[in-house]
Write a structure and sequence with these properties.
The protein starts with 41 loop residues before the first helix and ends with a helix. It has a 5-stranded antiparallel β-sheet with strand order 4-6-7-3-5. It is globular, with a radius of gyration of 23 Å. The relative contact order is 0.13. It has 355 residues and is α+β, with helices and mostly antiparallel strands.
Length: 355
C-alpha cells in the first residue's frame, strides 16, 4: 500500500517543523542499525521481547528501530509542566479565545463546510465542536508539533516513571500503527507527548478512532482535513456525545456555602437541586434533576462559576482538563456565531443581486 499519494506538503506554523511521510512500505534499515543507549537497558529488552512474543515482530527489526531512539530532555521538561497545570483560567483563556483563532476557525469551517455538514449528519457531532477541537489542538492544522514521535514515546515510556506504563503502551501502538499503515516510524512527528496530526491523536487513538472519510483506504489525519474532521467526530461520538445537548452553562454563586460543592473532577457528580441549596443561581433552562459538574475558575474579572454537562465530560476524554473543555466550548460558540453571521450576509448579498 502506498501512503498519502500526491498530498505531501510542509505545514507552516510558529516553531513547527515540516513533517514528511514516506510512500514506501515501513523501513527498518537493518544495514544502518546502530545500537543506541536504550538498547543497553534491561527494561527496553523486556519490552522488545513482549512485542516479539505478542505481535510477531522480529527482534532485529525492533532493535533497528529503538536503536535510533534518542532521549528527549525537552519532552521530559514540557510534560512536567503542562499549561493546564500551571495557568489560571484567565491566562489559559487568552491563549485560545482570541480574535485571530476565531477568524481562522471561520475560515476552516467555510473551507470544509460540506464535509462538516456531512459528518455532523452521519456521526451526530456538531460542526462547531469539531472545528473548536481542531482549533484548540493544532490551530486548525497549523501547529501539529515538531518532535519525532519515536523519541518522545521512548523517552516518556522509559524515563518518566510516573506515566511510563501509559507511554510504553503508546509506543507499542506506534510500532503496530507503522506496520499496519506502511509508515516509516522514524519519520513521524508530533507533540512532546506523542500526539499526531491535525487532531493530535495518540497512536492508540488513531488505531481505534481514525476514519478514512475520503475513500482512499487511508485515514490521513496528517494532511487531510476531511479525515481529521471525521476522526474527531468519531472519537467524540464513541465516547458518548449527545447530539442536541449543551456543553456548559455559566452560573452565579452567592453565600458562604457556595464553594463547598465545587468539584475538581471531570465527570458531572452533583444534582442542580443540590448546588442551588448551596447558593448557586442556575439558569432555569437546566432541570433541577440534571447532574452537573460545578466548577470555580479564576477569570479575568474574578471568580467564574460554571456547570459542566455530560458533553463537557465527553470533551475531557480528549484532554483531561476542565479548562481545556471550557476553552473548546467557548471557542465553538464564538466560531459558530461568526459562521452564522457570515451565512446571513451571504444570503442578504444573494437576495440583493436577485432583486
Amino acid at each position: 500500500m502506498t501512503i498519502f499519494p500526491g498530498v505531501l506538503r510542509a505545514l507552516v506554523g510558529p516553531g513547527l517543523l515540516a513533517m514528511a511521510l514516506t510512500c514506501a512500505p515501513v523501513s527498518f534499515s537493518l544495514a544502518d542499525d546502530k545500537s543506541g543507549a536504550y538498547l543497553d537497558r534491561q527494561d527496553v529488552n523486556v519490552f522488545i521481547d513482549e512485542l516479539v512474543a505478542e505481535h510477531q515482530f522480529s527482534r532485529p527489526e525492533l532493535e533497528a528501530i529503538l536503536g535510533q531512539a534518542e532521549r528527549s530532555e525537552r519532552a521530559l521538561n514540557l510534560i512536567s509542566r503542562p499549561a493546564e497545570g500551571t495557568l489560571e483560567w484567565k491566562d489559559y483563556q487568552k491563549i485560545f479565545i482570541t480574535p485571530e483563532r476565531i477568524a481562522k476557525g471561520l475560515d476552516f469551517w467555510e473551507a470544509n463546510a460540506d464535509t462538516l455538514a456531512e459528518v455532523e449528519k452521519e456521526l451526530g457531532v456538531p460542526a462547531h465542536i469539531i472545528v473548536a477541537i481542531i482549533g484548540v489542538e493544532t490551530y486548525y492544522g497549523r501547529q501539529t508539533g515538531g518532535f519525532r514521535v519515536l523519541d518522545t514515546l521512548t523517552t516518556l515510556g522509559f524515563d518518566f516513571p510516573r506515566r511510563s506504563e501509559f507511554f510504553r503502551k503508546e509506543l507499542k501502538n506506534l510500532l503496530l500503527l507503522a506496520r499496519e499503515q506502511k509508515l516509516d516510524v522514524t519519520e513521524l512527528t508530533g507533540s512532546y507527548a506523542g500526539a499526531m496530526g491535525i487532531p493530535q491523536f495518540m497512536p492508540s487513538s488513531y488505531r481505534a478512532y481514525a476514519i478514512d472519510f475520503t475513500g482512499d483506504q487511508q485515514a490521513n489525519i496528517w494532511f487531510s482535513d476531511e479525515d481529521a474532521i471525521a476522526s474527531v467526530a468519531n472519537y467524540l461520538q464513541k465516547h458518548g456525545w449527545r447530539y442536541g445537548d449543551g456543553v456548559a452553562v455559566q452560573a452565579r454563586a452567592t453565600g458562604g456555602r457556595s464553594d463547598q460543592v465545587v468539584s475538581s473532577g471531570l465527570k458531572p457528580d452533583k444534582a442542580v437541586s443540590q448546588i442551588r441549596k448551596a447558593g448557586w443561581k442556575v439558569p432555569k433552562t437546566v432541570p433541577a434533576s440534571t447532574t452537573v459538574l460545578p466548577m470555580k475558575l479564576e477569570g479575568s474579572t474574578g471568580a467564574e462559576y460554571w456547570l459542566g454537562l455530560d458533553n463537557f465530560y465527553v470533551i475531557t476524554r480528549y484532554n483531561r482538563s476542565q479548562m481545556y473543555a471550557l476553552a473548546v466550548h467557548q471557542l465553538s460558540q464564538e466560531v459558530m456565531k461568526d459562521y452564522h453571521n457570515s451565512l446571513v450576509l451571504q444570503q442578504t448579498a444573494t437576495k440583493g443581486k436577485q432583486g
